[in-house]
């Protein structure tokens, strides 16, 4: 086991960019939502840099990029609704599990760790994606970006998970790909571990100074 796991009873995972490479499907849905407004599709590489603060921010960034200005709230709402519709139609057609994920989850469960998911993705999409990859059984609790009034980098979703399982923060670990995961984890008093392969607005997540980094979750176990 990786030394970061010593004394840990609860491991909380981020979803997008940590367990799954979801940008190909997110980019299609963003493109279709913008096309409904007669705007050009941004493509995967831009969308990769916009993911991380939930779906409202994702569409705000896309509209701002396409039009050069902050969207009016009615346009923002309409395009966000269109995105939810399109993403709901095909949220895992092109999405892939990262290498090492299943092995890591199996090994952690075998060590009697509690596992939870805290994503900024809307909650409605979590179950279908976990089901699609056979991952639903691993997580005792899944928190989405719209499950609570606060989302990462606010520590509240992590504090909620720790309280739910009755585990003190110093025995909890947050694993994620972005500065929002590391900041939320640090503020919640969790240990933090980052993976470098996900989405962090085009910046190295090492700059957020997580307690540890692994190239692949397989290295955890
Ligand atoms: O939906 C997002 O913006 C990011 O989702 P994540 O928190 O699972 O990385
Ligand atoms: Mg992420």
UniProtKB/TrEMBL annotation:
Q: Which NCBIfam families match?
A: HAD-SF-IA-v1, HAD-SF-IA-v3, PGP_bact, PRK13222.1-2
- What PANTHER family does the database record attribute to this sequence? PHOSPHOGLYCOLATE PHOSPHATASE
Q: Supply the source organism for this entry.
A: Litchfieldella anticariensis (strain DSM 16096 / CECT 5854 / CIP 108499 / LMG 22089 / FP35) (Halomonas anticariensis)
Q: Which domain of life is it from?
A: Bacteria
The UniProt similarity line reads: Belongs to the HAD-like hydrolase superfamily. CbbY/CbbZ/Gph/YieH family.
Pathway listed: Organic acid metabolism; glycolate biosynthesis; glycolate from 2-phosphoglycolate: step 1/1
Protein name stated in the entry: Phosphoglycolate phosphatase
Keyword Ligase in annotation: no
Which positions are tagged coiled coil? none
InterPro entries named in the record: HAD-like_hydrolase_sf (IPR050155), HAD-like_sf (IPR036412), HAD-SF_hydro_IA (IPR006439), HAD_sf (IPR023214), PGP-like_dom2 (IPR023198), PGPase_prok (IPR037512)
């Amino acid at each position: 086991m990786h030394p970061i796991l010593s004394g840990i009873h609860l491991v909380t995972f981020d979803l997008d960019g940590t367990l799954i490479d979801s940008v190909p499907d997110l980019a299609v849905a963003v493109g279709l939502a913008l096309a409904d407004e007669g705007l050009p599709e941004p493509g995967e590489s831009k969308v990769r840099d916009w993911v991380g603060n939930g779906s409202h921010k994702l569409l705000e960034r896309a509209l701002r990029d396409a039009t050069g200005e902050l969207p009016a709230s009615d346009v923002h709402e309409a395009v966000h609704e269109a995105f939810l519709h399109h993403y709901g139609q095909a949220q895992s057609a092109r999405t892939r599990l990262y290498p090492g994920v299943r092995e890591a989850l199996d090994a952690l469960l075998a060590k009697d760790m509690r596992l939870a998911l805290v994503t900024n993705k809307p909650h409605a999409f979590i179950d279908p994606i976990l089901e699609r990859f056979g991952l639903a059984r691993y997580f005792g609790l899944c928190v989405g970006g719209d499950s609570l009034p606060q989302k990462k980098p606010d520590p509240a979703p992590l504090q909620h998970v720790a309280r739910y399982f009755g585990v003190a923060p110093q025995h909890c670990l947050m694993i994620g790909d972005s500065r929002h995961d590391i900041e939320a984890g640090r503020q919640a008093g969790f240990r933090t571990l980052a993976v470098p392969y996900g989405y962090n607005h085009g910046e190295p997540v090492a700059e957020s100074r997580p307690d540890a980094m692994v190239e692949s979750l397989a290295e955890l176990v």
